[in-house]
């Protein structure tokens, strides 16, 4: 089978990218041909299809110029991208495919490419890595708290609240994008939506998406990555973006109240300076900032940790870091929100706490720190759990079932 994978970024920028590359390797290993379509970027991995990639655009930088030309440029790319359609047509002329598997495409490639795929009768499967189809801010998080104000397609509320990057212009763009895609019927062209978490599937159904087009398929991970441990413990680890919705102040305060434990923070983001100030005011001796780390270094840090902590205060969909931690034989302390509780079995592979509750998180951290034997058993069970439930072969079976269903649907409609 010839499979087209479409994702905006073609380097390890986040979980969507990691999944795309892992899936590509899995499919190629099963003797399928994989064709990539993405956006140009200086950090992109080498690809034989890069000449077909769409030109890079930094939407936020263009909006900050506050000029008519920049505004039109953003609208032309973020809402309905004709250049994406043109580039994809050229790619498909040279490399025909049997099915298209979409990942994150909003704001750069855009669902405009669905019209090209529809014209060529190519089935469309879309794995959703965030909540953008339901929330213009993509996170169900605004002004420091969980927000579902746009439920029922009331996307205009995101403009009122300036949800997108606290910018009126950016909020207008994404809201306009939501409405235009629905008016054009682009979402109806998707054969199946894949949700990594049951939580996301539930949210789609609540917002009137057809349940028979939604398939829950968790992400997967290859266990043997050959990564050696970095540093020496004992330490707990947070690895990820330093942004407001990640619950980092709660984490800092909780760790500071547990004597003896050290916390490493690997990552960067817009919240870093504020978090560093929080550390300076609370406890700067047992909390260390490492900055952004390459994925292989981060995996080494996970292997060397006692456990990792995911203190999120937003609806996490399916944190890849949990799979990476379990695969490394380490347990997770995670917030009881979004898709996180689907992955962590309380008392078996980790511990859960109420999001935003410093005392509850501190209690769970203290227990992990003071019970090394039980913690080690949790890590062993976590690794066994990943081997059984999130292995590549099982994921391949699930994905191929959806591919075949989508292709069959198109063959039936084509015969009519």
Structure description:
This protein is α/β, with parallel strands linked by helices. It has 2 domains: 2-220 and 392-415, Glycogen Phosphorylase B (Rossmann fold); 236-389, 3-Layer(aba) Sandwich (Rossmann fold). The protein is built from 16 helices and 14 strands. The chain has helices at 15-29, 59-64, 68-78, 82-94, 113-119, 157-160, 168-183, 198-206, 248-256, 272-282, 295-304, 320-327, 340-343, 358-370, 372-389, 392-415, and strands at residues 2-6, 33-37, 99-102, 124-127, 141-142, 145-146, 192-195, 214-216, 236-239, 263-266, 287-291, 307-310, 332-335, 350-353. The strands form 3 sheets. It has a 6-stranded parallel beta sheet with strand order 2-1-3-4-7-8, with helices on both faces. A 6-stranded parallel beta sheet has the order 11-10-9-12-13-14, with helices on both faces. Strand 1, helix 1 (15-29) and strand 2 form a beta-alpha-beta unit. The chain is globular and about 65 Å long. The model has no long low-confidence stretch (mean pLDDT 91).
